[in-house]
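Table 4 source record.
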Amino acid sequence: MNVTSGNRNYKVTSLFIKAVILIFSFFYIFEKISSSGITSVLTILLDSSDLKLLFLTFFLMFLNWGIEAFKWKILISDLEQISFGRALKAVFAGVTVSIFMPNRIGEFAGRIFFLDKADKVEATLKNFIGSFFQLAVTVLMGMISIICAVKISEGYFRVSDIFNPVYLIIAPVFLLTLFLVLFFLNRKRHRFNERIQSCFNAIFNTGFKEIMPVLVLSLLRYFVFLFQFYLVLMAFGIDLEFYIAVILIALTFLISSVIPTFAFTEVLTRGAVASSVFQFVGQNSAVIITASLVVWIINLAVPAIIGSAFISKLKFFKAD
């Protein structure tokens, strides 16, 4: 097989992969929205007395993913210099690729295949660092919210009333174990071959000047999507004191982050978690589930649709 024929095969394969990604993404979004009763959602939206809050939530979506793009630009900078615009396109493409996958594990693919020069494995590890910090912030804020919830309820609030307390242990133990394993491997990395050592370098040579901005941006992004959830609750007429709403939303994020989800149950799981948490303040389950669906549409479905415009830019092979 000559070079021209081989390049043609790579291009056909690449085109096929991109087509599959788009088909699965759009099918998943359509199936989730249609199965969730979009008619009732639209009815509630149209009856909302404050639609401008929903518009504000929508515009905050761009800030949400803009922060994530800036994080990606910082993390990948020592492997490849990219513009903010290119980083944003890569992040949106990542949402498109991952939206139909369990726990959106394929998000890194949309990012690394947007790169021209960087090693794909090392770039994946850089993405892992960003995800690690975002999860760590979610867990930390969730733990604080539990302490606040117990204190405010004067001991009547029990974590076991919402979910099995073992889930509360899994996330911090996992993060601590992962840190210790990486620390041990780093101490012994001289025993591995050059390829594996380069992977360790991608993780451990990420300096303080990259780590601190990523940590701050992770915290800022957390508060952005927390505020988005709060705005949607207000738009749906859910009247709660701000600090109570923040505690419950943080609890919802914590539980959602530690419960493994499959692609076709993710939206239902998010809605069920939010409903279970907010039932302690006497909120209507149907409204909470609908609000959760709207947040999902704004923060994931819409970005996935936007990202579909950039799927053609993904470079799975050198021939692309």
